[in-house]
Amino acid sequence: MSKISIQFSRFSAFYSPLIATMGGGFLKDEGLDHEWSNSAVGKSAVDALIDGSAHVVQSAPSQGFIPASKGVTPPEVHFAQINEMDGFFLAGQKADPDFTWDKLNGAKIIVDQTSVQPLCMFKYACFKSGLDFSKLEIVNAGTGADMIDAFKGGAGDYIHLQGPAPQQLEFDGAGYIVAAVGPAIGPCAFSSLASTREWLETDMAKAFTRAYAKARAWLISTPADEVAGTLSEYFPSIHASVLASTVGYYQNLGNWTPHVEITRESYEAALDVFEHDGRIETRPKYEDVVAPPPEV
């Protein structure tokens, strides 16, 4: 049985389509064994493609935006979507079923700034919601764990987190989800599967893609608590109800759309986000960053 090596840039329940491909037995059904890892702190998972230690990595099309916009061909190509919408949430110190984005004016907001994309997306969500980001009181509290500690210590009125962290806050009675960022932006090419173009031509790539497509379909159609039971071994420190709540949120929000390919429409929407933040001056062509999934 061939072994496929998979690496994550960031590991959370948001990436359940890829985790389910491993944990749900879909790779095994296609004759593939697997191993997986997280990229080292300060390194991109794309580096694992370059040095050959991974066949597939969890990434984002935006990884290729900056080099491609400068005329440099990215070493990786993004061939399948994982999430077609931002997966971050806003949690507040108090429950607020009537939350509106204008309530961020005059509030302290702890925003995830550990990588470029979450911050760019948050800025764009504020823009789409009629806010002037430059006038907001943004708190940089470091990494995810430090952010949560700062929030619990009262350093922010709101905190910007990816699931299952905000669901865990609710479970602990330490915060309350008031909004999802994704709907404020709309569909976009948020996170992806990337590989080398050469690997996409292999039989392993075809087998992986078949497994991945089946895992996506299962993930979308299966009750959240059943999904959580299948994925629980990957989240030993997360309570089963928290994991199920997170999966349910993403299912209901529509982050995990049925198709595998990265659409041109979602790609252009992601470019809008990065152009708005001034991260790119020219818009790289779709074909320079994205490739279709292997023919299966």
Describe the overall structure:
- With 296 residues, the protein is of the alpha/beta class.
- It has 2 domains: 2-85 and 188-289, Periplasmic binding protein-like II (D-Maltodextrin-Binding Protein, domain 2), CATH 3.40.190; 88-185, Periplasmic binding protein-like II (D-Maltodextrin-Binding Protein, domain 2, 3-Layer(aba) Sandwich), CATH 3.40.190.
- The protein contains 13 helices and 10 strands.
- Strands 2-1-3-10-4 form a 5-stranded mixed beta sheet.
- Helix 5 (116-128) links the parallel strand 6 and strand 7 (137-139).
- The radius of gyration is 19 Å and the shape is globular.
- The protein starts with a strand and ends in a 7-residue tail after the last helix.
- The model has no long low-confidence stretch (mean pLDDT 96).
Q: Kindly report the spatial arrangement of strands forming the biggest sheet.
A: 2-1-3-10-4
Reading the helices and strands in chain order gives EHHEHEHEEEHEHEHEHEHHHHH
| Helicity level | 25-40%
* Corresponding CATH architecture of the largest domain: 3-Layer(aba) Sandwich
Report the end-to-end length measured between terminal Cα atoms.
19 Å
The average pLDDT score comes to 96
CATH class of the largest domain: Alpha Beta
Structural class: alpha/beta
CATH structural fold name of the largest domain: D-Maltodextrin-Binding Protein, domain 2
CATH homologous superfamily designation of the largest domain: Periplasmic binding protein-like II
What percent strand? 15-25%
Main sheet attributes: strand count, strand direction, barrel closure: 5 strands, mixed
Oligomer: single chain
Quantity of strands, as a count: 10
What ranges have pLDDT less than 50 throughout 5 or more consecutive residues? Answer: none
Q: Label the overall shape.
A: globular
Q: How large, in whole angstroms, is the Cα Rg?
A: 19 Å
**Overall number of domains:** 2
Q: How many DSSP H or I helices?
A: 13
